[in-house]
Amino acid sequence: MALNLAIALVGMTLIGSPESGATMPPGDTPPTKAETFAAAAGQVLGAASACDRIEQGRLDMAAHRVGETVQDEVDDDDELTSAHNMFVDSVALGRRSIANGDIDCDAAEARLAELERSIGH
Questions:
Q1: pLDDT, tens only, 7-19
Q2: Of the four, 26, 30, 68, 118, which is 20 to 30 A from 4 by CA?
């Protein structure tokens, strides 16, 4: 239930949808809840990490909590690997969203705060 709430909250702040193609699991399999959450959280953390004023310790703590949340939800190692890969790809997308001016650091920080609340940080 906590993951469902976290997905809903983070999903509302997505910079781009996991369905955009870059953050889909391999094959024709739709993403699991854990994969969707990992992708959404990765985008938020990636954007926030591109902002100098957001402390590294804050990012590290949020990333750690995201990892715990995903690990608690996955069914097997393959799903964990896929969620990890989607997270990494999404971090890059989030960083690019700042570099390209798609969002600014104020928005990235607000989305990070929302992520933190959703994972009980």
A1: 444 444 444 444 4
A2: 26
In this structure, is residue 87 part of a structural domain? yes
Q: Is residue 15 part of a domain?
A: no
* Number of independent structural domains in the chain: 1
* This prediction's pTM: 0.79
Residue 28, in any domain of the structure: no
Rg of the chain over all Cα atoms, to the nearest angstrom: 13
Instruction: End-to-end CA distance of the chain: give it in Å, rounded.
Output: 16
Q: At what angle do helices 77-99 and 33-49 cross, to 10 degrees?
A: 30
Q: Cα–Cα distance between 62 and 88 in angstroms, integer? A: 14
